[in-house]
Amino acid sequence: VAASAAKGFIVAPSEVAAAAAAEVGPQAVAEIEDLAGATAPRTATEAAPLIEELPTAIEGELLWCGADNISTDGIYQGRLMYETLTREQMADAAMENYDPSFAATVKQLAEVGPVVLASGSNFGSGSSREQAAQCLKYGGVSAIVAGSYSATYTRNALNNGLPVLESPALARFLGDRLGSGSEATIERPTVRTGCRVRLDLARWEVRLLPSAGGAGLVSEEQAFPLVPIGPAAQELLACDGLEPWIRREMARV
To answer: How far apart are CA 193 and CA 105, in angstroms?
Structure first.
């Protein structure tokens, strides 16, 4: 997927590697391979320092989609894969198999400020369609915090500059209070939590912030650990994805 995105049409990764070696040299090719493969999370004790280009915090209104195993078909349904859609149309289609009202909810919140989506475990399971990451970003989701992800979804999200962070403790906390389940059985698929969240990347914590009026999910600030991400994933996010990163490296030659 990343190789085809970089070229603008479907190609094998080996073709991109050969072309990149000729244009930017073997060192840059090695860095691209590191970026493509080093998406596995690190433990807190092994956390690498943040690179300078990456913001130290992401803050926004917290939205809870509490089902486990939300599939890429739930996020971006398969029939749309054969249609050419604008970014706005892709945003409107986000999560419509999971919750038809999701896109309108996000749009309403995004008019006020950034939106952070929280979800359960194994988010983005199923196929490798990168549109399942793109549609959320285009719709106004600034970051996702889930209990865990499909490895393919993680890579697609990072390649498209969408922050995806893990906090199993936060997912359990929200599930206990706001409900959880499966795509097919969850009673409230999308819940506006009424509170803001700050992803503190300097401390690798996610903080729930109480609402100004005091009524909401929490009455005082609560912190949960985030699984740190390594420098390769940080570089992708700082550049807004793999394709901009490649362009930057090629411009440096």
So the answer is: 12
